[in-house]
Design goal:
The chain is an alpha/beta fold. The protein folds into 2 domains: 170 residues, 3-Layer(aba) Sandwich (D-Maltodextrin-Binding Protein, domain 2), CATH 3.40.190.10; 194 residues, 3-Layer(aba) Sandwich (D-Maltodextrin-Binding Protein, domain 2), CATH 3.40.190. Helices cover 50% and strands 14% of the residues. The chain has 19 helices and 15 strands. Helix 2 links the parallel strand 1 and strand 2. The protein starts with a helix and ends in a 7-residue tail after the last helix.
């Protein structure tokens, strides 16, 4: 009996050794999907990966970059890979409804243990933590936070004309008219709508002023009957009044090309997210010298529409431990400071000194976020509403800039809210 028992345990031990020996060791590799390819973004991606490899020597980073602001084309390619059961180790995604779609598809692992290890909840403003958590579980690590509603302007021109940066719609219209009278060949406001989302950026700022923050959230949660809503109509009327001051070539331009019109002195202003700071800097412009920036609007209250760039751990990733090392590095000030300074974003962590930014624009914004986290609202780029709705909504609003038919547009938008069950699908988002 003793001999039989010993034989049994020896057999188990040998079998365990065989199994261990046959288990392949994880390659020192990391495959990353991202969309940072434009001016300011590509340089920041290089910094980000350099910081990671310095902290994790020997890791081979395999990039899969896909051009297209906000990941428009990235999502299509990524979806094909995920559906085929060939996930990258990690991929960039926005917070909000886009993240929720990946979680609902079962494409991401929850990161509760990692967040607890890092103490990441304590480092982030609550609205940001909420935007990257689904059903109370964090699924990604945000490395930045972008503010959508920023108005950039040619500071040299504004100083020459003796006008201040507009912070309300009436001031914007007045500045546009002043610029047009000064130089009829100069576009007061530049826009690029190749990827469609840029037009709703402008409308969002108008909606925020006309309706206020509570209305903005209710609208994107599908709680407003747009078909006969006077507030939404007023917002469209204001966008229609602004349209003659926008470059007619907008449908041929990307977001960075629309910013490029300022650099080439073909336009005077653009409404774009904080990543435009990185673009302008990549073109040799200095904040506070060649260009200035203000949050827009600042009435009836100064609210910030935001979304984060994030990465998670793909379910079925071939290199899960290396990916966790990547996420730990992303969460660190050592990575966020040089990457965000270069790319134009804000720090995800509010425990980083705002003075770490070299420019007064983001020093002030980061301080405002740190002191007023309740002023943050998830924007339509990160998306409160489901992404299928958001894409279709982009198309409608981009078309409106060329053909501003208000009744038709209101009917189309109302139908989109119904078709995509926005009220039910966006119920996950709560504000304040």
């Amino acid at each position: 009996m003793y001999k039989n028992a010993m034989s049994f345990f020896l057999t188990l031990a040998l079998l365990s050794l065989v199994i261990t020996a046959c288990t392949p060791k994880e390659d020192n590799k990391l495959e990353v999907f991202h969309w940072w390819t434009a001016g300011g973004e590509r340089e920041s991606a290089d910094i980000m990966f350099a910081v990671f490899t310095a902290a994790n020597p020997g890791v081979q980073v395999v990039e899969q970059p896909m051009a297209g602001g906000g990941g428009v084309w990235h999502r299509i390619t990524l979806q094909q890979r995920m559906s085929a059961g060939l996930p990258p180790d990690t991929f960039m995604t926005l917070g909000g409804a886009e993240l929720k779609a990946y979680v609902d598809e079962g494409y991401l692992e929850p990161l509760d243990d990692l967040w607890d290890e890092l103490g990441y909840y304590d480092a982030l403003p609550k609205p940001l933590a909420d935007a990257v958590s689904i059903d109370g579980h964090p699924y990604v690590v945000p490395l930045n936070m972008h503010i959508q509603n920023i108005l950039y302007y040619n500071k040299v021109l504004f100083d020459q004309l003796g006008i201040g940066p507009p912070t309300t719609f009436d001031e914007l219209l007045q500045a546009a008219e002043t610029i047009k009278q000064f130089d009829p060949e100069l576009f007061p406001l530049s826009l690029g709508t190749v990827e469609k989302w840029e037009a709703p950026f402008v409308l969002d700022s108008i909606i925020l002023e006309v309706g206020g923050p509570e209305y903005y959230v209710k609208l994107h949660k599908g709680e407003i009957d747009v078909r006969n809503d006077p507030t939404y109509r007023t917002a469209l009327e204001k966008l229609k009044a602004l349209a003659p001051y926008i470059n007619p070539t907008h449908s041929y331009l990307t977001w960075d090309e629309s910013c490029g019109l300022l650099v080439s002195e073909e336009s005077a202003m653009v409404i774009m997210g904080t990543w435009a700071i990185g673009y302008f800097q990549s073109q040799g412009w200095t904040p506070g010298v060649e260009f200035g920036a203000v949050t827009f609007p600042q009435a009836p209250d100064r609210m910030l529409l935001f979304h984060p760039d994030t990465y998670g751990l793909a379910k079925g990733a071939l290199h899960p431990e290396t990916t966790k090392a990547w996420l730990r590095t992303l969460a660190s000030p050592a990575l966020q400071i040089p990457t965000d300074v270069s790319q134009g974003g804000m720090f995800a962590r509010v425990d980083i000194d705002p003075a770490s930014f070299p420019d007064p624009i983001r020093q002030e914004l980061q301080t405002y976020v740190r002191n007023n986290p309740d002023k943050l609202i998830l924007d339509q780029h990160g998306s409160i509403a489901p992404f299928e709705f958001t894409q279709a909504y982009w198309d409608v609003i981009a078309a409106f800039v060329d053909d501003p038919t208000i009744d038709t547009t209101m009917a189309s938008v109302a139908n989109l809210f119904t078709t995509h069950s926005v009220k039910e699908e966006a119920a996950w988002y709560h504000w304040p």
